[in-house]
Amino acid sequence: MHWLTEPFRQEFMQRALFGCALIGFTNGALSAFIVLRRLALMADAMAHSLLPGVALALILFGLTPASLFFGALLAALLVGLGVQIISGSSRIKEDTSLGLLFACSFSLGLVLLSYSPAQVNVSHYLFGNILGLSDSDLWIIYTISFIVLPLLVAFQRPLLLLMFEPSIAASQGVAVKTLSYLVMGLLVLSMISSLQAVGVVLALGMLIGPAATIYLCSDSFAAMFWGGGILGMLGSCAGLFVSYWLNLPSGACIVLVLGVIFFAAYLFSPKYGVLRKVLHRRHLHKESLARWQVTKGAANASILSKDKSDSSNQT
Amino acid sequence: MSSHHLEIKDLTVVYHRVPAVHHVSLDLRCGHCVALLGPNGAGKTSFFKALVGLVPKETGEVIFGGHGKKGADTDIAYLPQRSVVDWDFPITVRGLVEMGRYMRIGMWRHFGKADAEAVEEALRAMDLADLAERQISALSGGQQQRAFLARSLAQNAHVFLLDEPFTGLDKPAQDLLRETIRRLAAAGNLVIASHHDLNSVPELFDQVIFLNGELIAFGDTRETFTEENIARAFRTHIFSGPRAHHFTLLNT
Questions:
Q1: Residue A73: CA atoms inside 13 Å, Cβ hemisphere, count?
Q2: Is A115 in the same domain as A236?
Q3: Is A277 part of a structural domain of the chain?
Q4: Each residue of A126-139: pLDDT tens digit?
Q5: What is the chain B residue with the closest CA to A38?
Q6: Is the overall model pTM greater than 0.90, yes or no?
């Protein structure tokens, strides 16, 4: 059992586990909104566009968590604003402007990083480095979780209305625009918190994996929200253990574990799993089948009785 | 209740400086089923959206129960076309109807006994009590329409704006929905539905509005649903502003 308890004795692993649990829960809970609002690609683009902010902060203020945080926040805001401006003022649609801006800003980030004075390992920002969490990293993760989660819970009702159908929500008096900006803001915040864990490239895995999994197993939004949080937390911690035992990159392991759980749900979910569909192929409309059988039975009966009466007439 | 009016004064809706609805004035009494008729692009959806504040009004006002309506509120419920709704959303029929209460109870208040009763009553009124725990995609088209009506009932709406509610329904479902909206109207509500199947108008609605950019005609189905009005609404160019203000009757 030594191998099982060993990770808990290492200080860097304790920190990493704690960080993982918090980041996993926050991202997992938020993922319900990302999946249902279909913001996955938007989130991916946002994650990539954080890079130039991170690079700029690195050049100007050095390698401190606070500078990276504000750099990333600024970059996300600028790209978000840029998308709105370009799509609002020209015939270019939102997805196109988002794709273009994200590619450009990611490239800008790479170029800026090459000017960085300190020899920075780019891969930390691309793929995360959760084993190297510092105290201030943990503080940032704390703060973000304690902003994002209470806000999501507080705004649960209007957010649910918004996600279900924005036009009905607006007709009921929900401030649709403000709430959409709120979701975007929370998305950026929790992405920054997952930057340390899995990096900009893999952040999407934590942000959609958990809710996508629950979506295949349940018809309840509450299950998606809380279940997504719990699954995100457990999955991330499990990924961390796997990476420790097998000596593999931690960010990739976390996302892979979440991915494996998703595929398991995709195949075996008792509700919407593929295997269930294949094995229990039901008649599409049970009721219409029953009705058809009844009417067919009645028709047969009437034909029979008609035959009988015909034959009795003949005799 | 049936003394309530929905009064629309001089309503104009403009998209990107192109007018979609022109200076429409109507006085609608609660207790009626009203058909909103007009060709595609006649501004039917814009008209609905303006009534619930989804698109800004260029001119005019909407008055219900003696109060001017600035924007969205719970008195007027808008039910969009079935095709715009994500039916795979993880929610049951009961959850959908509960949503109708959300704006009444706000963010913090508990979902109380009165709310649960309102939901229960709405489900019963729409004959959905047995289906309450079903996921919404496991309903037939007519049941889906009734689920949305139940949601609006739970919201305590008095005016129901239905966008093409009969589209895609088979005859029995259509009959059932007709009975349902008749009952809603008889209970003192106002039901306005956009509709494109002219043949079924007389059996479904007791009043009609003909819209073609501007108001063509409004009144009881018996007097107003005439060949002449149909021709004026459907066989003319869509009225799209004073410059194009010529009625070329093609077929009269």
A1: 13
A2: yes
A3: no
A4: 787 888 888 888 88
A5: B86
A6: no
What total of structural domains would you count in chain A?
2
A216 and A299 both lie in a single domain: no
In chain B, which residues have their Cβ closer than 8 Å to the Cβ of A158?
A: 102-103, 107
User: Most B CBs within 10 Å: which of A91, A219, A287, as the mutation test of the B interface?
Assistant: A219
Q: B73–A163: do the CB atoms touch at under 8 Å?
A: no
Looking at the structure, tell me whether residues A170 and A268 fall in a common domain: yes
Domain-ending residue, one of A272, A290, A306: A272
ipTM of the complex: 0.82
DSSP result, chain B: -TT-EEEEEEEEEEETTEEEEEEEEEEEESS-EEEEE--TTSSHHHHHHHHTTSS--SEEEEEETTEEE-S--SSEEEE--GGGS-TTSS-BHHHHHHHHHHHHHTTTS---HHHHHHHHHHHHHTT-GGGTTSBGGGS-HHHHHHHHHHHHHHTT-SEEEESSTTTT--HHHHHHHHHHHHHHHHTT-EEEEE---GGGHHHH-SEEEEEESEEEEEEEHHHH--HHHHHHHHSS----SGGG-----S--
Chain segment A158-195, per-residue pLDDT in tens: 999 999 988 888 888 888 888 988 988 898 888 888 88
Q: Mark whether A227 and A302 lie in a shared domain.
A: no
Average predicted confidence (pLDDT) for chain A = 84
Query: Are B85 and A215 in contact (CB < 8 Å)?
Result: no
Residues A232 and A170 in one domain: yes
Provide, as residue numbers in chain B, all residues whose Cβ is less than 8 Å from the Cβ of A176. none
Contact B54 A170 (CB under 8 A): yes
Indicate if A142 and A181 belong to the same structural domain.
yes
Query: Is B102 close to A155, i.e. CB distance below 8 A?
Result: no
